[in-house]
Amino acid sequence: MQTSVIMDVESIRSYLPQRYPFLLLDRVTELEPGVRATGFKNVTINEEFFNGHFPGKPIMPGVLIVEAMAQLAGVLGFVSTGRKPADGVIHLFVGADRLRFKRQVVPGDRLQMEASIGASKRNLFKFGCRATVDGDLAASAEILIAEQVL
Questions:
Q1: Quick one: which of 71, 66, 141, 144 has its CA closest to 100?
Q2: Active-site residue numbers?
Q3: What is the dotted CATH code of the domain comprising 9-149?
Q4: Cβ proximity of 26 and 39 under 8 Å
């Protein structure tokens, strides 16, 4: 497997329109355009969502785990098509199939994610995604993303 690109948060920001507090991808550690990507989110107690989810028992909301996987898939999609939001396109999360949660994600965890490109048709892309913590599966899904011209 060839690792062709590694991205820090500044590079990621050139591919994703999300910003604090909704940018949920800290680093891309492997990227093989057209094939797969890996990356992570460091989960800290300082996350805004822990104020209400849940007081006294902080757990990362499942929808944000899915969003983090979708953001990694979005970067993979952009790099694979050779485009960026600056080119007048955006990748929109349009669905998830076979979504499963297997483990809670709590402050101090590193949410390690993988995305691989599955089927694509016109402007729709399907990605197989997984999120793990210390090697234990936290969530998995098939994520659907649509490319839209702005």
A1: 141
A2: 53
A3: 3.10.129.10
A4: yes
